[in-house]
Protein backbone atom coordinates (compact mmCIF):
# COMPACT_ATOMS: atom_id res chain seq x y z
CA UNK A 1 0.00 0.00 0.00
CA UNK A 2 1.28 3.45 -0.82
CA UNK A 3 0.79 6.59 1.25
CA UNK A 4 -2.21 7.71 -0.83
CA UNK A 5 -3.97 4.41 -0.12
CA UNK A 6 -3.24 4.70 3.61
CA UNK A 7 -4.67 8.24 3.66
CA UNK A 8 -7.78 7.14 1.78
CA UNK A 9 -8.38 4.24 4.15
CA UNK A 10 -7.71 6.31 7.28
CA UNK A 11 -10.07 9.02 6.08
CA UNK A 12 -12.80 6.45 5.47
CA UNK A 13 -12.21 4.60 8.77
CA UNK A 14 -12.52 7.74 10.87
CA UNK A 15 -15.08 9.48 8.63
CA UNK A 16 -12.97 12.60 8.20
CA UNK A 17 -14.66 15.30 6.10
CA UNK A 18 -12.90 17.15 3.26
CA UNK A 19 -12.71 20.45 5.17
CA UNK A 20 -11.21 18.63 8.16
CA UNK A 21 -8.62 17.02 5.85
CA UNK A 22 -7.57 20.49 4.66
CA UNK A 23 -7.34 21.66 8.27
CA UNK A 24 -5.31 18.61 9.33
CA UNK A 25 -2.81 19.12 6.52
CA UNK A 26 -2.55 22.80 7.50
CA UNK A 27 -1.91 21.87 11.16
CA UNK A 28 0.84 19.54 9.93
CA UNK A 29 2.54 22.37 8.07
CA UNK A 30 1.33 21.63 4.53
CA UNK A 31 -0.99 24.12 2.87
CA UNK A 32 -3.27 22.27 0.43
CA UNK A 33 -6.53 23.45 -1.08
CA UNK A 34 -9.65 21.29 -1.01
CA UNK A 35 -9.09 20.38 -4.68
CA UNK A 36 -5.49 19.34 -3.97
CA UNK A 37 -6.60 17.19 -1.03
CA UNK A 38 -9.10 15.45 -3.32
CA UNK A 39 -6.25 14.79 -5.78
CA UNK A 40 -4.19 13.26 -2.96
CA UNK A 41 -7.17 11.05 -2.10
CA UNK A 42 -7.30 9.62 -5.63
CA UNK A 43 -6.46 5.94 -6.07
CA UNK A 44 -3.60 4.97 -8.34
CA UNK A 45 -3.70 1.99 -10.67
CA UNK A 46 -2.32 -1.11 -8.96
CA UNK A 47 0.86 -1.98 -10.82
CA UNK A 48 4.24 -3.44 -9.88
CA UNK A 49 5.90 -2.15 -13.03
CA UNK A 50 7.83 1.07 -12.34
CA UNK A 51 7.71 2.19 -15.99
CA UNK A 52 3.92 1.88 -16.17
CA UNK A 53 3.55 3.92 -12.99
CA UNK A 54 5.73 6.74 -14.29
CA UNK A 55 3.90 6.78 -17.63
CA UNK A 56 0.54 6.84 -15.84
CA UNK A 57 1.71 9.60 -13.48
CA UNK A 58 2.77 11.76 -16.45
CA UNK A 59 -0.57 11.26 -18.21
CA UNK A 60 -2.78 11.74 -15.16
CA UNK A 61 -0.75 14.32 -13.23
CA UNK A 62 -3.62 16.84 -13.36
CA UNK A 63 -5.95 14.47 -11.47
CA UNK A 64 -3.50 12.97 -8.99
CA UNK A 65 -0.97 14.11 -6.38
CA UNK A 66 1.37 11.45 -5.02
CA UNK A 67 1.64 11.55 -1.23
CA UNK A 68 5.35 11.29 -0.46
CA UNK A 69 6.66 10.45 3.02
CA UNK A 70 6.86 14.14 3.98
CA UNK A 71 3.22 14.77 3.07
CA UNK A 72 2.08 11.59 4.83
CA UNK A 73 3.98 12.29 8.03
CA UNK A 74 2.85 15.93 8.01
CA UNK A 75 -0.75 14.73 7.78
CA UNK A 76 -0.26 12.37 10.75
CA UNK A 77 1.39 15.13 12.81
CA UNK A 78 -1.51 17.44 11.94
CA UNK A 79 -3.96 14.69 12.87
CA UNK A 80 -2.45 14.48 16.35
CA UNK A 81 -2.79 18.26 16.76
CA UNK A 82 -6.35 18.12 15.35
CA UNK A 83 -7.42 15.47 17.87
CA UNK A 84 -5.40 16.46 20.94
CA UNK A 85 -4.46 20.11 20.51
CA UNK A 86 -1.11 21.75 19.99
CA UNK A 87 1.55 20.94 22.55
CA UNK A 88 3.94 23.70 23.52
CA UNK A 89 7.53 22.69 22.69
CA UNK A 90 9.94 22.39 25.59
CA UNK A 91 12.98 24.69 25.61
CA UNK A 92 15.50 23.55 23.01
CA UNK A 93 12.95 21.35 21.25
CA UNK A 94 12.03 22.18 17.63
CA UNK A 95 8.49 23.43 17.04
CA UNK A 96 7.93 20.98 14.20
CA UNK A 97 9.13 17.43 14.91
CA UNK A 98 11.82 16.22 12.51
CA UNK A 99 10.83 13.65 9.92
CA UNK A 100 11.49 10.06 10.83
CA UNK A 101 12.99 7.50 8.52
CA UNK A 102 10.30 4.98 9.33
CA UNK A 103 8.13 2.78 7.18
CA UNK A 104 4.72 4.36 6.59
CA UNK A 105 2.75 1.49 8.15
CA UNK A 106 4.67 1.61 11.45
CA UNK A 107 4.39 5.38 11.49
CA UNK A 108 0.64 5.13 10.89
CA UNK A 109 0.20 2.81 13.89
CA UNK A 110 2.24 5.02 16.22
CA UNK A 111 0.70 8.34 15.24
CA UNK A 112 -2.92 7.07 15.16
CA UNK A 113 -2.34 5.50 18.58
CA UNK A 114 -1.23 8.90 19.91
CA UNK A 115 -3.96 10.90 18.16
CA UNK A 116 -6.83 8.66 19.29
CA UNK A 117 -5.30 8.08 22.74
CA UNK A 118 -5.35 4.33 22.29
CA UNK A 119 -3.59 1.96 24.65
CA UNK A 120 -2.24 -1.46 23.69
CA UNK A 121 -5.47 -3.22 24.67
CA UNK A 122 -7.48 -0.89 22.42
CA UNK A 123 -5.18 -1.60 19.49
CA UNK A 124 -5.39 -5.37 20.00
CA UNK A 125 -9.18 -5.04 20.20
CA UNK A 126 -9.24 -3.11 16.92
CA UNK A 127 -7.32 -5.88 15.16
CA UNK A 128 -9.64 -8.42 16.76
CA UNK A 129 -12.65 -6.60 15.27
CA UNK A 130 -11.04 -7.09 11.85
CA UNK A 131 -10.55 -10.81 12.55
CA UNK A 132 -6.78 -10.71 13.04
CA UNK A 133 -4.99 -11.89 16.15
CA UNK A 134 -1.95 -9.86 17.13
CA UNK A 135 -0.02 -10.71 20.28
CA UNK A 136 1.27 -8.15 22.75
CA UNK A 137 4.83 -9.03 21.74
CA UNK A 138 4.09 -8.41 18.06
CA UNK A 139 2.44 -5.11 18.88
CA UNK A 140 5.45 -4.06 20.96
CA UNK A 141 7.76 -4.93 18.07
CA UNK A 142 5.65 -2.88 15.63
CA UNK A 143 5.74 0.17 17.91
CA UNK A 144 9.51 0.09 18.58
CA UNK A 145 12.08 2.52 17.21
CA UNK A 146 13.71 1.65 13.89
CA UNK A 147 17.15 0.69 15.26
CA UNK A 148 15.88 -1.46 18.15
CA UNK A 149 16.80 -5.15 18.07
CA UNK A 150 13.14 -6.23 18.42
CA UNK A 151 11.78 -3.78 15.82
CA UNK A 152 9.49 -5.35 13.22
CA UNK A 153 8.26 -3.74 10.03
CA UNK A 154 4.50 -3.52 9.85
CA UNK A 155 3.30 -5.31 6.75
CA UNK A 156 0.45 -4.14 4.56
CA UNK A 157 -1.80 -6.88 5.94
CA UNK A 158 -1.49 -5.58 9.51
CA UNK A 159 -1.98 -1.96 8.43
CA UNK A 160 -4.97 -2.80 6.23
CA UNK A 161 -6.65 -4.81 8.98
CA UNK A 162 -5.92 -2.14 11.60
CA UNK A 163 -7.68 0.43 9.40
CA UNK A 164 -10.52 -2.02 8.79
CA UNK A 165 -10.90 -2.48 12.56
CA UNK A 166 -10.88 1.30 13.05
CA UNK A 167 -13.70 1.58 10.51
CA UNK A 168 -15.73 -1.04 12.36
CA UNK A 169 -15.12 0.70 15.69
CA UNK A 170 -15.62 4.33 14.66
CA UNK A 171 -18.21 4.16 11.85
CA UNK A 172 -21.09 2.61 13.83
Please report the number of helical segments.
9
Q: Helix amount, in percent?
A: 55-70%
Task: Tally the beta strands.
Answer: 0
Low-confidence stretches: 47-60
How is the main sheet built?
none
Give the SSE order as H and E letters. Answer: HHHHHHHHH
Which structural category fits the helices and strands? mainly alpha
Identify the overall geometry: globular
What's the Cα radius of gyration?
A: 16 Å
Mean pLDDT: 85
| Alpha-carbon distance between the two ends | 25 Å
Task: Report the β-strand fraction as a percent range.
Answer: under 5%
Describe the structure in your own words.
With 172 residues, the chain is mainly alpha-helical. The chain is 58% helix and 0% strand. The chain is built from 9 helices and no strands. The protein has helices spanning 3-14, 18-27, 34-40, 50-59, 69-84, 104-115, 120-129, 136-142, 156-170. α1 (3-14) packs parallel to α9, α5 runs parallel beside α6 (104-115) and α6 packs parallel to α9.
Can you describe this structure in just a few lines?
This protein has 172 residues and is mainly α. The chain has helices at 3-14, 18-27, 34-40, 50-59, 69-84, 104-115, 120-129, 136-142, 156-170.
Amino acid sequence: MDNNDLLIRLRYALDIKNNDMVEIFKLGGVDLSKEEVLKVLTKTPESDDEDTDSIWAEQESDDYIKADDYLFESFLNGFIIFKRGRQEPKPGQPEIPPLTNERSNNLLLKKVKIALQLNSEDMLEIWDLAGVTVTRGELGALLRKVGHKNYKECGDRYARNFLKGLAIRYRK
